[in-house]
């Protein structure tokens, strides 16, 4: 469903991504982990050309989006739902309007159709009862779930999550992870950048470890967490486990 081939990204003289190759099969949940500055979020943003790659190819369901002109690119972007660290909700709009706006602008849906789809997606993330609320009346976890509903309402083929829980208080993280767990059970294809090691170990089909702009290793959660092949991955996972008091064990 998603394939990254020889992806490179430079900012001036700084090489951020170095020949990245990665495939995500239909219905797979793939977690990308690694230290800050390793290029994880840049890679994710290149997947729908929010960042323009320096070179390489990105295929969504077999279509190379690097060959898309601007009008085609906008249509292709609708196939990749994106959920960021920040919620990016419009504070002056109700939850319902936040979830209907992109549908009406990008998909040209009528009001009734867009609102019906929005209510279905809000129900999916457990927030149909908050449709008339303003974002400022919601907790951070609720706002992030609205952001997920907004992305799902556009009927994406792939969901990209960039640190979706990093801005949340610890007690609110679980509600967002529960939605992602449900999406996995329903067969949504997902590429997730996150530090939620426990969730990755429990739910991921594969885990990718990045450092210094490279994919250092990848494998099943048992392989990467239980028996990492490289010294760099062993050191990183040991430090993460130590900081969290072994909670991920």
TrEMBL record:
Q: How does it sit in the membrane?
A: Peripheral membrane protein
The UniProt GO MF terms for this protein read: ABC-type amino acid transporter activity; ATP binding; ATP hydrolysis activity
Please provide the record's keywords in A-Z order.
Answer: Amino-acid transport, ATP-binding, Cell membrane, Membrane, Nucleotide-binding, Transport
The residues covered by the ABC transporter domain are: 2-237
Pfam families, from UniProt? ABC_tran (PF00005)
Q: Which PANTHER family match?
A: AMINO ACID IMPORT ATP-BINDING PROTEIN (PTHR43166), GLUTAMATE_ASPARTATE IMPORT ATP-BINDING PROTEIN GLTL (PTHR43166:SF9)
Q: What is this protein called?
A: Amino acid ABC transporter ATP-binding protein
What organism does the record attribute this protein to? Paenirhodobacter populi
């Amino acid at each position: 469903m998603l394939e990254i081939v020889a992806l490179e990204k430079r900012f001036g003289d700084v090489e951020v991504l170095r020949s990245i190759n990665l495939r995500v099969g239909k219905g797979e949940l793939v977690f990308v982990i690694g230290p800050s500055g390793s290029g994880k979020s840049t890679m994710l943003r290149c997947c729908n050309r929010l960042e323009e790659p320096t070179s390489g190819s990105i295929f969504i369901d077999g279509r190379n989006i690097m060959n898309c002109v601007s009008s085609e690119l906008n249509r292709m972007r609708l196939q990749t739902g994106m959920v960021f660290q920040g919620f990016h909700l419009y504070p002056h709009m109700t939850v319902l309007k936040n979830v209907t706006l992109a549908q009406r602008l990008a998909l040209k849906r009528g009001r009734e159709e867009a609102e019906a789809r929005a209510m279905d997606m809000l129900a999916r993330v457990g927030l149909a009862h908050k449709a008339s609320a303003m974002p400022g009346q919601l907790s951070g976890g609720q706002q992030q779930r609205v952001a997920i509903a907004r992305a799902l309402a556009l009927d994406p083929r792939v969901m990209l999550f960039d640190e979706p829980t990093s801005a949340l208080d610890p007690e609110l993280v679980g509600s967002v992870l529960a939605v992602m767990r449900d999406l996995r059970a329903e067969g949504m294809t997902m590429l997730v950048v996150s530090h939620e090691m426990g969730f990755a170990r429990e739910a991921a089909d594969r885990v990718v470890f990045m450092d210094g702009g490279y994919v250092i290793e990848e494998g099943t959660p048992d392989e990467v967490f239980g028996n990492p092949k490289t010294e760099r991955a062993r050191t990183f996972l040991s430090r993460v486990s130590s900081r969290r008091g072994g909670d991920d064990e």
